């Protein structure tokens, strides 16, 4: 096989392991060749599979490449064959040997290094002085023992710095896939690093990019992933950097990533690692986004308007679905970036488009709201994935009032199962009875089980199940939602009573169950997950937190919309949350972009970009004595104006979402119409907030 054929086979193996598919056209787009060339490559791959007594590839509908499960057996032989076909230079051999020593706690013999590099022992002996000099220049020392081999001594921080330097140097042992695969396999002989760990690392990095608004270049993304992947060998052996640095601008992002790694991969990591990762992030390169993160509040408002229009056209109210709102914002932020990524419409997405023609039509009709914001036409692929997000929300909402008892089947370790569990519980109302491996499914009592959700195929097990990706894609949400909607839950007294319990009691009950299971080796991880989930809910900034009684005024006199915006800002100015420049910028924003800030009948939400003069997050609501038009005919005149001060993309989001929804609630509008003071309005907000929690 040629190099491209090997890379295609490697991709197909990974797709099969995660129960995903890829088409000929997708591969042609990836490798920038014709589909005919990919077909020739598939012929080569089939010859290779036949030689290794494995099932061949075959083509399905729309050029989707179908694989058999035994293709995964080709990974090891492919890696060795691919690596063997490369003749490494002395510099590459030195780097390879150094990484092996960094990943080892004990002596490693010259013969072991030679065997793993497929060279003679005498070649390694000739390289030895170069290896020592290479390490010595970086304050690390190679101890050589005639009977034991080589041992790398020095501070952990110097070992990590050397690792990072090699990754960022462009050394081919990290860039060429067969070489890097072989390197990680050699390291894994001492300490297993699963495929699931790599996928979770990629997901953690990607989520951190969105949360903290810093998007890595493609090259830096791969470099950071490789660093985390290799540093796991050190973390799992409890080797931590000796670091006393100061907090930099990337510290919060580093903390978020380390917290996620602790939750899903490595149990306990000290804060010194956060400081070091913050410095690692400083060494990476980032892109400037087309959708400036400074304008994220504007995008949040426009996304809300888009959802409102979609809800009206498909006659399904999605305006109260905060999960959908948050997910769509993150998706659009990624779509509007300058990463150059273009989505491919795979067979699953195509099936969704065919099953939901009404949603597709409504999206195409209203996508102009988003196009006006981003300043360009969205491609049919980008629109297709917006449709998928909407359909996933529809399926989740179908099952909003019903709880299902489910069993999770995960073929991976604790990281995969906990990650999948966290995502499922966020999107659906589930009581997870147990998490089990596939081989234990026969021993599971299914009497009280409504559904089985599995990350792997359970064909031949004689049960109905829903198969999902461990990372739970939007396509998975649609499938899970559709399957659950056809199931009648096996309601029990226990389930009915549990609905009445408080969040605190539920959390304590979960911890009690974990502690009572004396055979559970992962109890500490599970308890930490319960506690983190509980406090994450409690730390949400709610509407009543950002809009106190003293920030609400009634009977304010204004002659036009400009005066109304200025009046709504006065409380925040007095509190030092914003300055006069912010007020001027809000008015200029409406003059340039139109009255998109009118987000509900009779209600406007003026705001400005991040760092336009805001220093604190906050809200200030006024009721005009005489309503004034803002220029949005279907919602004018405006009686209520709430000035929003935002300092980042997330702190205000839930509160803003709640407030807009309240102004769509007729009961709420009737009640506040009768209020005489800001205190009375605040109490009504608290009441509605409590009822919807």
TrEMBL record:
Domain (PTS EIIB type-2) ranges: 404-492
Residue ranges of domain PRD in the record: 192-291, 294-400
Residue ranges of domain PTS EIIA type-2 in the record: 545-688
A GO biological process held by the record: phosphoenolpyruvate-dependent sugar phosphotransferase system
GO MF, one example: protein-N(PI)-phosphohistidine-sugar phosphotransferase activity
Keywords: Repeat, Transcription, Transcription regulation, Transferase
Entry-linked InterPro entries: BglG_antiterminators, HTH_11, PRD, PRD_sf, PTrfase/Anion_transptr, PTS_EIIA_type-2_dom, PTS_EIIB-like_sf, PTS_EIIB_2
Superkingdom of the organism of origin: Bacteria
SUPFAM superfamilies: Phoshotransferase/anion transport protein, PTS system IIB component-like, PTS-regulatory domain, PRD
Pfam families recorded: HTH_11, PRD, PTS_EIIA_2
Keyword hit for Transferase: yes
Gene3D superfamilies: 3.40.50.2300, Mannitol-specific EII, Chain A, PRD domain, Winged helix-like DNA-binding domain superfamily/Winged helix DNA-binding domain
Listed PANTHER family: CRYPTIC BETA-GLUCOSIDE BGL OPERON ANTITERMINATOR, TRANSCRIPTIONAL REGULATOR MTLR
Name of the protein: Probable licABCH operon regulator
């Amino acid at each position: 096989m040629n190099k491209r054929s090997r890379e295609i086979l490697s991709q197909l193996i990974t797709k099969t392991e995660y129960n995903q598919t890829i088409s000929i056209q997708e591969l042609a787009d990836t490798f920038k060749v014709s589909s005919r060339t990919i077909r020739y490559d598939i012929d080569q791959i089939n010859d290779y599979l036949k030689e290794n007594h494995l099932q061949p590839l075959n083509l399905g509908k729309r050029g989707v490449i179908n694989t058999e499960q035994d293709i995964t057996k080709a990974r090891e032989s492919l890696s060795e064959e691919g690596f063997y076909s490369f003749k490494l230079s002395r510099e590459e051999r030195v780097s390879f040997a150094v990484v092996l020593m960094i990943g080892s706690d004990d002596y490693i013999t010259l013969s072991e290094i030679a065997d793993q590099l497929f060279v003679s022992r005498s070649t390694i002996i000739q390289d030895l002085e170069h290896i020592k000099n290479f390490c010595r220049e970086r304050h690390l020392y190679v101890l050589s023992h005639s009977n034991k081999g080589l041992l790398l001594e020095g501070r952990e921080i110097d070992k990590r710095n050397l690792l990072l330097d090699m990754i960022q140097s462009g050394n081919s042992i990290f860039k060429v896939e067969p070489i890097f695969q072989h390197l990680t396999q050699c390291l894994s002989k001492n300490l297993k690093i699963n495929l699931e760990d790599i996928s979770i690392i990629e997901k953690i990095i990607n989520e951190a990019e969105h949360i903290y608004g810093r998007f890595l270049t493609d090259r830096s993304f791969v470099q950071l992933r490789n660093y985390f992947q290799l540093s796991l060998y050190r973390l799992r052996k409890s080797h931590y950097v000796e670091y006393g640095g100061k907090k930099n601008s990337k510290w919060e992002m580093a903390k978020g990533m380390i917290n996620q790694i602790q939750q899903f991969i490595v149990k306990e990591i000290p804060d010194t690692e956060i400081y070091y990762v913050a410095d690692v992030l400083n060494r990476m390169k980032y892109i400037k986004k087309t959708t400036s993160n400074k304008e994220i509040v504007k995008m949040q408002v426009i996304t809300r308007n888009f959802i409102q229009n979609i809800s009206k056209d498909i006659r399904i109210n999605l305006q109260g679905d905060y999960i959908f709102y948050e997910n769509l914002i993150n998706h659009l932020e990624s779509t509007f970036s300058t990463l150059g990524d273009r989505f491919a419409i795979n067979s699953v997405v195509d099936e969704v488009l065919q099953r939901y023609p009404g949603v597709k039509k409504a999206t195409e009709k209203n996508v102009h709201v988003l196009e006006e914001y981003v300043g360009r036409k969205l491609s049919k692929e980008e629109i297709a994935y917006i449709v998928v997000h909407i359909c996933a929300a529809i399926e989740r909402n179908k099952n909003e009032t019903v709880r299902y008892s489910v069993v999770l089947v995960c073929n991976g370790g604790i990281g995969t199962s906990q990650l999948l569990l966290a995502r499922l519980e966020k999107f659906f109302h589930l009581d997870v009875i147990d998490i089990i491996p596939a081989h234990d499914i026969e021993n599971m009592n299914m009497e009280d089980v409504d559904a089985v959700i599995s990350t792997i195929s359970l064909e031949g097990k004689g049960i109905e199940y829903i198969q999902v990706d461990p990372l739970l894609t939007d396509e998975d949400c649609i499938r899970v939602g559709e399957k659950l909607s056809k199931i009648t839950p096996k309601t029990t007294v226990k389930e009915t009573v549990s609905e009445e319990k408080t969040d605190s009691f539920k959390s304590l009950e979960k911890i009690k169950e974990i502690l009572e299971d004396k055979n559970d080796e992962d109890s500490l991880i599970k308890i930490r997950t319960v506690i983190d989930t509980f406090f994450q809910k409690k730390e949400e900034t709610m509407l009543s937190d950002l809009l106190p009684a003293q920030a609400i005024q009634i009977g304010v006199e204004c002659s036009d919309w400009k005066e109304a915006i200025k009046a709504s800002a006065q409380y925040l100015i007095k509190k030092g949350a914003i300055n006069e420049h912010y007020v001027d910028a809000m008015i200029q924003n409406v003059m340039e972009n139109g009255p998109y800030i009118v987000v509900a009948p009779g209600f406007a939400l003026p705001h400005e970009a991040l760092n336009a003069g805001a220093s604190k997050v906050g809200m200030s609501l006024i009721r005009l004595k005489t309503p004034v038009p803002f220029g949005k005919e279907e919602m004018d005149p405006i009686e209520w104006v709430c000035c929003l001060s935002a300092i980042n993309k997330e702190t205000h989001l839930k509160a803003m979402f709640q407030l807009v929804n309240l102004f769509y609630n007729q009961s709420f509008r009737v009640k506040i119409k009768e209020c005489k003071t800001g205190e009375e309005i605040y109490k009504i907000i608290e009441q509605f907030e409590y009822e919807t929690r």
